[in-house]
Design goal:
By secondary structure, this protein is α/β, with parallel strands linked by helices. The protein is built from 14 helices and 14 strands. Helices cover 28% and strands 18% of the residues.
């Protein structure tokens, strides 16, 4: 601390405090936002949850409402996470596929086209009966291995992810990502023929359709599916692809913000985004990306990680899973378990700014993403408090902020005393 120098007039200069920059811990509860649920007496899952730790963070800090990307946008987790980290998705987003593939540890080179994929179930007429193959949990690595082969000079690589999820990468000459999905996005519809959205993408669409036809036959003949049928389970007999894209070129996070950064996530797509911008990915045993994820282990790993990093983002997927399942009870219970796992978060507030929010709303009544805004809270030592007392979609409207996700890093930099001065 500078005690001040004596001026010629005899007065002393004002004391100038040298601020110590704080660390940042951004907690993203995937699909957190909700709408009223009949099963919860007209409350959202967050309102119905017992959440003393989240409420305490609000009571002792600042909160508000956050719009993913922009008011009314129905965003995906990919675009909203890019925005939360300060990368404008309208400039950089090319499709979710590359992030999903990189998150699974796949190499995505310049010119490659990558996709998100599901192992799904179709009937003999090609109609999708289950987009998740009965939420298959084992054996998909063997299916992925069988689907990695070449067609007409184009190499296809498949890697299995969590449960039914997978990623597909195409590598060859003259490939384009301007093509449609094969995934119809809801059961009861036929698998779609991939079509070019640009004349230059015709070759890509043609070779991809040929590949998918061959992949369909390999899946139908695979021993794993014969075993599943015998056991009365849904076969994983279709690779449903969507979100074609080519990896964008993004400024590394460390270069953009001057912070050493890491991520904790059980979801390959989120891990892929973080790796793309140069973050280190921290593996946590028991972090599954499902409702059974070990939340306590994730928070304990987070506290250890913050000893060595300036910035940490942690994604928790369970709230989104319950929203997509249309299960408000499971969503409420997941929030309660997350809150319980946060019981020791007060120990890091002295030198860390903690932010809790979602990436988008996934109302149980919709079973999909909506454009509803989300609650957001900020807490650290020395922070100004506002009038809000509870952490939920309505109570947080009494807080300080009404912002877009692209503003979150600005607020975090300011609260952590890392923001550059704007102007003289």
């Amino acid at each position: 601390m500078n005690r001040g120098n004596t001026l010629k007039s005899g007065r002393k200069e004002p004391e100038r405090v040298i601020l110590t920059m704080k660390k940042i811990f951004l907690i993203v509860l995937d699909g957190l936002g909700d709408r009223p649920n009949v099963e919860l007496q007209g409350r959202t899952a967050l309102q119905a949850a017992y959440r003393p730790n989240l409420n305490r963070l609000v009571k002792d800090g600042q909160c508000g409402i956050m719009h993913p990307v922009s008011p009314g946008y129905r965003t995906g987790s990919d675009t909203s996470h890019l925005s939360l980290l300060g990368y404008d998705p309208e400039k950089f987003y090319t499709g979710r596929g590359p992030f999903e593939a990189m998150g699974l540890g796949m190499t995505v080179l310049g010119g490659d086209v990558a996709f998100r994929a599901n192992f799904g179930t179709v009937d003999t007429n090609g109609v999708v009966t289950d987009r998740r193959a009965g939420r298959i949990t084992s054996g998909t690595d063997k299916l992925a291995e069988a689907l990695s082969f070449s067609v007409d000079g184009v190499d296809f690589f498949v890697r299995a992810g969590v449960e039914h999820r997978a990623a597909l990468v195409m590598r060859g000459k003259d490939l384009m990502d301007r093509i449609t999905d094969s995934d119809p996005h809801e059961p009861g519809l036929r698998v779609q023929e991939v079509k070019p959205l640009d004349e230059k993408a015709k070759f890509t669409a043609d070779v991809l359709n040929k590949y998918l036809a061959l992949a369909r036959k390999k899946l139908a003949d695979h021993p794993l599916n014969a075993k599943r049928i015998k056991e009365g389970k849904e076969p994983a007999n279709e690779l449903l692809i969507r979100g074609a894209g080519q990896a964008p070129s993004l400024t590394p996070f460390s270069e953009l913000y001057g912070m050493k950064a890491a991520c904790i996530s059980g979801i390959p797509m989120i891990t892929g985004i973080c790796r793309l911008i140069g973050m280190n990915s921290i593996a946590v045993e028991g972090a599954t990306g499902r409702l059974d994820s070990d939340f306590r282990a994730k928070f304990e790993a987070a506290y250890r990680t913050l000893n060595d990093y300036d910035f940490l983002i942690m994604n928790i997927k369970a709230t989104d899973v319950a929203g997509h399942d249309g299960d408000p009870i499971a969503k409420r219970d997941a929030i309660q378990r997350i809150d319980a796992a946060m019981k020791d978060i007060g120990k890091i507030l002295q030198d860390t700014v903690v932010c809790v929010t979602g990436d988008h709303s996934t109302p149980c009544a919709m079973k999909d993403h909506s454009g509803d805004p989300l609650p957001i809270l900020f807490n650290s030592s020395g922070i100004r408090k506002d009038r809000a007392k509870l952490f939920d979609e309505i109570s947080c409207t009494y807080g300080t902020y009404n912002i877009n996700s692209g503003d979150v890093m600005k607020v975090l930099l300011q609260l952590s005393d890392r923001a550059e001065k704007y102007g003289a």
